[in-house]
Amino acid sequence: MGVEVVVDGLTKSFGKQTIWRDVTLTLPPGEVSVMLGPSGTGKSVFLKSLVGLLKPERGRITINGTDLVRCSEHKLYEIRKLFGVLFQDGALFGSMNLFDNVAFPLREHTRKTEAEVRRIVLEKMEMVGLVGAEKKLPGEISGGMRKRAGLARALVLDPEIILCDEPDSGLDPVRTAYLSQLLIDLNSQIDATILIVTHNITVARTVPDNLGMLFRRELVMFGPREVLLTSDEPVVEQFLNGRRLGPIGMSEEKDQATMAAELAHKEAGHSDGSPDADVRGVVPQLEPTPGLPPRGAVRRRKDRVMSIIHTLPPDAQQGIIASLTPDEQRHYQVSAGVGPDTATVPDTTRHTPSPWPRQGGVL
To answer: Which CATH homologous superfamily contains domain 5-223?
Structure first.
């Protein structure tokens, strides 16, 4: 299973400009997380800091007991082997065919024979649907295929952590949907810890187990998808609804006078071009392609959500309960329309019927 990434009090600046400060979160092992935020909030900088390409001024990034901010170059090199990174443009070498692009990390960082390299490369290319395209150059294929080739290259060293920097950029909605499904299928098969940076609201709503939001140089929220999708936090609500009305402006955050004027304009019945109604709520999450194993991350996340549901606002509680299947409601001893004061995560030492498929005889 993927490893846990613990970020504590992280602050990054370029000169006198603070990009973000005091960011604290934990990427749960084996789960898919998404980091959202308006343009210019430092989401890509955050990814580069996680992998050690940029050095924060303060804070810690702890992986397997090692602090990447303060460790030696040798230790950092070893920890980086846990990572696979999908860059925005795929970052492929234009003079190499897809096979050689995907094989590059194996040839650079391992002593595997060419026979072993070929087996691994073809396996990863099949995983991302690129069998038969091995001899094509990056300039001869579509943007979506370049993304998939970049993902195959990120997978060849069997990473436990996969970072994806705006994987949907430059892709049409159909290709974005295919790539989203591919990431869920990969998590199903290898249980890696995945962090995706994106602006795409559909991806944010349907793909991850956890959501985070950067704004005003701070981490506004980070937590299970159910919590953020039902949140009334103004920044999160505005972004996930794609509305103009809210704290986020075209360039910087809005002042209170501007926000008050916009609210009065809307209350007077004038449209701002945004959706007429909020789409707040726990929409269905993408599931693995039929035939693939169920994602253990889903069970772990829902257990975590139901252990804290009593701390959430009533509307959020009801929205979360309504999103559960009848079997899950019985499992957590809750029902739609009834307060969740007695919601519990059942004692797994008892023979409580479970809605979760068994894998290898283990719940």
So the answer is: P-loop containing nucleotide triphosphate hydrolases (3.40.50.300)
